[in-house]
UniProtKB/TrEMBL annotation:
This is DUF222 domain-containing protein. Transmembrane segments: none annotated. Residues 395-421 are annotated as: Disordered. Residues 316-369 form the HNH nuclease domain.
Amino acid sequence: MNSIADLSAASTAQLVEAAAVIATHLAQRAAPDSGSVCMELAEELATAIDQAEYALAGLIAVVDRSGEPKHWGLSSTQAWLRCRMGMREGRAKERITLARQLPRLHRVNAQMATGDLSYGYAATVADAVHRLSDEDCARAEDIFLAAAGEGLSAGKVARLGAKIHDLVVERNGDDKPPEDVRRGYQRSWLAVSRSLDGGCYVKGWLNPEDTALLDGTLAPLAKPAGSDDRRDLAERTAAALSTVLSGGHKDTRITVIADLDTLTGGDTPGRLRDGTPIPAAQVRRIALNAGVSPLILGPDHVPLYLGHAVRIASSGQRRVLETLYDTCAVQGCEVPGLLCEVDHVDGWALGNSPTDIDKLALCCGWHNRWKHTHPDQIQITKTDEGRYRYRALPPDGIARSRRDRPIDQAANPWHDDHLAA
């Protein structure tokens, strides 16, 4: 495509706007009828997307170093990618790892920039070297690129990375094969050894299923507690594990929401907290075989008032809030309600918010503190069901994201009128 505009003189912001306009128009075009033409176009487009991923990695690296997401009410770079850009957890981690490792991977950096190395290979190499020293990283990079040049798939390159890591461990003095190799990769295991001071060392390996459970439970609690939190990830993870263990988890509890009419023979189904419907007959069976804790609501669905005399919410209030809130009240935050703190909507310290159920919400620990220190960056609304929804606003003086407002085609210098095919 020949462009009337001088691309070399355009700023990064202008190029991003141009790419956004082109992508918008491309998404609205129907694919050609010819399979061979589509194959050729798809391969060319994939290369362009890989180069865009390289540019994205550079932007993410700056955001990650600067800590900018915390000014927007986001606890980490990963939370920013999930909440603002809609990425899955795994993809967000992958992109952060690539952004952090590219400065050490000089050949990968250069080849990805020119489109000679795909995003898939680059991300695989970045993940394989993040535990290696700079010297070992440089040697491993040559091996990985040679393997990719010989046609090895990204999956085989990843397995090669695991072998290289094992060799590095063996070279550094550990003659025994790694524990996970000796035991195999099918079953999870944990080894706990006591220290003389009463503590213990924990070592182990979890299969993918158990890893998903661990991440889902500990990752939300292992976020930094604020800008002054000096703990590293390992220390925060240990604290998160202690939080879960101290919570007990001794009893299995399920919350079923149902009308009194359903319990006395009606046909109206109940539901779980996530909205899953439960047939009326099954609701009654659950009630007969489990302890029932009724939550009595007033005509406006506003129960359990404690006023200003008590600051800490009661267990009964928490049960109600856990029924109302599946996750943290902050829009985009996925910390489960069971792991959140009770938040006074208008701020207890200000004397405006009594400990009444219609003035309480569930907030994760990080956002609870952030809301208190950034009151001007929180927008609070209340739904018809009585739930509060918090939205983190940009810092003062910063415009909303371009993706939140329509593009003014007439004012855009990269509109089709300025481009000639």
